[in-house]
Amino acid sequence: MVRFLTEELDRDTFVKQYIQSFKRILLVGDANKLSAREESLLELEKKSSELFFDTFVKQHGRAPDEDTLLEQVKVNFLKRSHLFKRSAQVIDEEHFILSHVDQVKRMKEMKREVFVEGGYSFILEREKRLARDYFRKHDDYPEGYEELIISRSITAVNRGLEKLATDFMDSFSYYYKDYVKGKNKYER
After folding, report:
1. Contact by Cβ (8 Å): 18, 70
2. Model confidence over 34-52: pLDDT tens digits?
């Protein structure tokens, strides 16, 4: 069967539409956002689409069209869908951060009235950032190491919260104590 080619796509348009189409397929179902691991896989998918575009132009003397783009998305998604497979999520980034901040607020050292103005808020904001960074760092392991992926392992979640609590106590002893009334260099 003869297939007529449609309008050629430039490289940037091809890559952008490729990634949008690939992402749309990924987000079908219950997913509303991509994990850090999926984002890094999408970066590889982007490089793959750029390579495909360049190879297509060399082989055919013209840029691919939209039909070629959609076919390539379909073929590559089917080929790599196992890499994007999601396991049941134990906790997401937002809830991990909230869990850590809640554990910090419950610590005896964290009575709002003992801190200089803005100290309590500063500490909680810093702990949120530390929890976010910890979650992102520990949510990106290769296939086969699911027990280490914090969003999929209650053991990894508990270990993370324990580590962050220990780090908080260390920070309190050496850094946060400067925000306690009467014991700090910032008090007026």
Report:
1. no
2. 777 788 888 999 999 999 9
Higher per-residue confidence, 185 vs 147: 147
What are the residues whose beta carbons fall under 8 Å from the beta carbon of 108, sequence distance 6 or more? none
Helices 93-105 + 119-137 axis angle, to 10: 140
The residue assigned the tokens 């379909």 is 74
Six token digits for residue 47: 């490089």
Of the candidates 174, 171, 41, 156, which has an alpha carbon nearest to the alpha carbon of residue 99? Answer: 156
54 and 64 Cβ atoms separated by less than 8 Å: no
Q: Which of 86, 81, 120 is nearest to 104 (CA)?
A: 120
Half-sphere exposure for 20 (CA within 13 Å, toward CB): 8
